[in-house]
Amino acid sequence: MALSTRLMAGIMVDSQILYAQEENLLAIDPFSEEMLEVASYDFRIGQLARYHGEIVKEAGRIVTLGVKESAYVQSLEKIKLSNRIAGRISIPTALVMDGIFMSCGLQIDPGYEGYLFALIKNEGPDKCDIELHKTRLFSIEFHALSMPPRQEFGIKRQHKSLPSMPNPNLGGRQ
């Protein structure tokens, strides 16, 4: 199946992201026009798990990430990619300037379906407030592929929920 001329291989701009959604090549749920950028889409933090075991998911809740404190996060939005689109993950500059670092896979494989997950850490000199369902964490650049991959996405590697937080006193996962 050839790509439409509206969706040529390469980095997708806002109109192509919208077109891919119309053609069911890409799904973002919930989708917000406000999160659509010129050549990317920003995903917000939906849930956050802290070291002391607390999982926070209430919309509008502000969570303070102390200096050197880490947390696992899950996106608010779910994503579904066809086998003709891949994604690249980065962090919005505003969070980097606040001292927030993110560790996650750098690519979203064609065929991926689910939430996005990352470990974040506050390396800045001050505490940082994160508002659930509002703070943008994942900035996704979508790439239309010139052809579908030979292999299908491996579901066995896919996380479905927040992983358990490692205990900082014990090392490793509990």
Low-confidence stretches: 165-174
What fraction, in percent, of the residue positions are helical?
Answer: under 10%
Helix/strand-derived category reads mainly beta
Strand residue content: 35-45%
The separation of the N and C termini measures: 47 Å
Number of strands: 14
**pLDDT average, as an integer?**
86
CATH architecture: Distorted Sandwich
CATH class: Mainly Beta
Q: Give the topology string: H per helix, E per strand.
A: EHEEEEEEEHEEEEEE
Number of helices: 2
The count of domains is: 1
Oligomer: single chain
Largest beta-sheet details: 9 strands, antiparallel
CATH topology: Deoxyuridine 5'-Triphosphate Nucleotidohydrolase, Chain A
CATH homolog superfamily: Deoxyuridine triphosphatase (dUTPase)
Characteristics of this structure?
174 residues; Deoxyuridine 5'-Triphosphate Nucleotidohydrolase, Chain A; nine-stranded antiparallel β-sheet; three-stranded antiparallel β-sheet; 2 helices
Describe this structure in words.
The protein has two helices and 14 strands; from the N terminus they run βαβββββββαββββββ. It has one domain: Deoxyuridine triphosphatase (dUTPase) (Deoxyuridine 5'-Triphosphate Nucleotidohydrolase, Chain A, Distorted Sandwich), CATH 2.70.40. With 174 residues, it is mostly beta strands. The strands form three sheets. Strands 1, 3, 4, 6, 8, 9, 10, 12 and 14 form a nine-stranded antiparallel sheet that branches. The radius of gyration is 17 Å and the shape is elongated.
